[in-house]
Amino acid sequence: MKKLIAFFCLLLLLPFSSFEAGAAAVTLNVYNWGEYISDGSEDSLNVNREFEKYYLETYGEKVRVNYTTYASNEDMYNKLKTGATSYDIVVPSDYMIERMIREDMLRPLNFDNIPNYKYIAPQYRGLFYDPDETYSVPYAFGMVGIIYNTTMVDEADLDGWDLMWNEKYKGGILQFNNPRDALGTAMYRRGIDVNTTDRAALDRAAMDLIEQKPLIQSYVMDEIFNKMKNGSAAVAAYYAGDFLTMYEDNEDLAFYYPAEGTNVFMDAVCIPASSAHPDIAERYIDFLMREEIAVANAEYIYYASPHTLVTENEEYVEYMTDIHEDAMEILYPPDGKYKTSYYQNLPADALAYSNALWENLKLANSIEPWIYVVSITIVAGVVLLLLLKFINKKRMEKYY
User: Among 337, 293, 285, which Cα is nearest to 316's?
Assistant: First the structure.
């Protein structure tokens, strides 16, 4: 009943909102990862609504943020590449930014509209994917590790990446549902350079994923949250910031970085070349860099922030420590404590080969149940034909 009353109240108030029917408003299309901006839930700041208010007050123009999400870099890239929808803001990871720059998919930024860029710490500027600081503004960073349920996993089995291949946890293991991260888990495990173009090395990693497949409960991206929170899976490789989100709902979960090495990544805000409103998009990026907004986002998404005013904010440090006593060490480990590497954009032929390996793995996964039936039927048919031929030959010998 309360929901119905609230709904009708909303209908009554709607004509008096800042975006009343018939009023012209520019639509800013923002395309971001899921669960990756403070959205007003659970008493958090609604960043997109705050930007709409700020823009109206500052520039006298109505802007409506149309916010949609994707689950992987590859999903985002394919959507943009088709050109079916025009976006004004995207937040890719490092290697994908490198690829999109090479393919002229991103627009150079006018930093006159982004003065708050000065708050990005020097060590996070000019990284390999955008060395001239032309196309991107760092948003959040982190590392991949292994999440496990302490009630399901024996401490003695916490052996680097091998836990993801431990048969004891068959049916309880979750693997990434994207080629770069999934292949990466196998490559780090074997000590293979994750940026290699050597096909034999890529084949070895793909074979390890095929060997792992019978142990896998599911290939996941955002689906991991519910599965680890409700205890329906025991082990998963995923991002450190998301572990803290899951831990908040399930304190049986724990996390570690594999000693063999792991991926470190930077996600950055960019403007697609096809953006219809680049000036507004740049002001949106600058808005994200304001201290109160950057802190709100960091507290909501639980990823590490490259913003100096965030990491110097005592309330932020206290907030994260309340979530998990080791949160700051997990998010901001000392330099050199762990063996890490960035994914870099692969040459076109190596990228195509990696994607083909991944598609073959997923295809095999989907057709496996019936392909065995077909194979058995064919073999049985061949055996039957040979048997009939043999019997017929014996009959001929008997009568002739």
Answer: 293
